[in-house]
Design goal:
Elements lengths: L2 H18 L7 H16 L2 H9 L4 H8 L3 H9 L1 H7 L1
Length: 87
């Protein structure tokens, strides 16, 4: 299986878990966004990403550590303030 394909499968699995969560009564767009956010935090927790960034690891190294794409890591860093506010 191609390495990029593994990322896609892991993310899809985590989104499926998020879709089964109690947000299923929300409108589709909001539910899908919540599912993606759950998947990203489940697979690559922002606190762990921040710790690795503070230790000077690059995006590729961090993404490889969590078996996700660099896009997931970038998005987690972009939305860090919202993640912490939601928790």
């Amino acid at each position: 299986m191609e390495f990029k394909s593994i990322f896609a499968h892991l993310f899809a699995m985590a989104r499926a878990v998020g879709d089964a969560a109690p947000v299923k009564d929300l409108h589709n767009t909001v539910r899908q966004a919540a599912g993606r956010a759950f998947a990203a935090e489940f697979l690559a927790p922002i606190d762990e990403i921040r710790s690795m960034r503070d230790d000077k690891h690059d995006l590729v190294t961090i993404a490889n550590e969590f078996s996700v794409s660099t896009a997931v890591i970038e998005r987690q860093l972009e939305t860090e303030h919202r993640i912490h506010a939601a928790c």
